[in-house]
Structures are given as C-alpha cells and as structure tokens.
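Recall the central idea of this unit: under ordinary conditions, the amino acid sequence of a chain determines the structure it adopts. In this exercise we apply that idea directly, starting from the sequence alone.
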Amino acid sequence: MRVGLFIPCFVDQLFPNAGKAMVTVLRRLKIDVDFPAAQTCCGQPAFNTGYWDEARVLAQRYLEIFRGYDAVVCPSGSCTAMVRNFYPELLGGANQTTANTFEFAEFLVRKLGVTDVGAKFPAKVTYHDGCHGLRELRLKDEPRALLRKVAGLELVEMDQAETCCGFGGTFSVKFPMVSYAMDEVKVQSIQRTGADYVVSADSSCLMQIAGYLTRNKLPVKTISLAEILASA
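Accordingly, the structure predicted from this sequence is:
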C-alpha cells in the first residue's frame, strides 16, 4: 500500500509531534509512508469564509500532489472532512483521491482493521470528539477502540464529549466571547472526570482547550491521539 501523509497547517506549524507520532505508529505497523513536501493548506479557512475561488486553487493543488496514492492519512478530522466531504462540493464532484483520504484513527480501524498498536500510556484520560470528525466523518467508536487497547490507560467519558470546544477556526476570532463560553463548558466537563489528560484527534481543538486550561492554571494536560498511540 502506497500511503501519503497529509499534514495540516496546525500540525505543521504548532503541533509537529502529532504528525511525527502518526509516522511512528504507521511504521510500527510496517506501513511505508511518503511525505510530499509540496503540500500546502487544504483551503478550509478560505472555504469557510466564502473565498471559494481561492479555496478551489488549493483543492486542485491537493489533488495533483496526492494523486496515485492508495491512501492519504491525516491527523485531523477537520481537514480530512474538508477534503472528502467538501471538495466534491467545491470542485463539482468526488474523485479517487478525495475518497482515499482518511483521518488517522479511521485509517487504522476501518482500513487496516487494527485497534491494538502496541501502545502503553499509564494515565487516566478523557476523549473530546472534534465536530468534523464526529459529524462529518461519523467517527465516534474508532478513537475509543484504539484507546481501550492502550496498556495502562484508563478511559473515562465526560458528559459533554460531543459538545463543541468553541474553536471552529475563524469562529473563535469572530465571536471570541461565545467561543470562550463554549470552551468553559467543555473544560468543566473535562474536570468532572478527574482525568489527567484530555485527548483528541484534532490539534486545533486541543489548542483551544489548552488555552483555557493554561489561563486558569488547571492541572489537566492535553495530548493528541497519535502521541498516545506512539507511546511504548
């Protein structure tokens, strides 16, 4: 299987360890991966704010760069949803490259049929469902199936697991007070679990949650799903 790595802007610029961890896990599973260095933003910020012509250029670039791969794997439900669900709307139809783009947990569980990747992470964690992964890709059980197979890990569900963290890309910039209030609801739910870590497949969500935790000097830490799965 020829697999390409699609690394979103947030991961590339702010959370590179999530991308590196994904590579660690895939190589542990004997999957050869390529990183096309010419890749850029998927165009989601432009698409979401109405600049479809600009987004279309980036979408076409994505299709050119990742053409020919059996699968493209991405450590983000948000960017994966942009490619698979919204590129067809933007470009007037789906193609093989959009259909073969997978979020990381989705690729492991649905494509490879793997839930145990040999990880060990002795801690109590709770999982945050990013909106795009949950609502656009219908990913709910897949990340949890992976976490339950991690040695030493205790998964505790929060009562607001499916509630938006308030980031939403440009939403948090346009409506900062609403975004902050949503973040507060999310963090209070996290605290009630008594978890040491909050885990998500989307680094952008973790950045939003970490901002609230840091400002309020709360002890809960954030970590990507990929980093937990790479721990051994």
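The CA atoms of residues 5 and 125 lie 27 Å apart.
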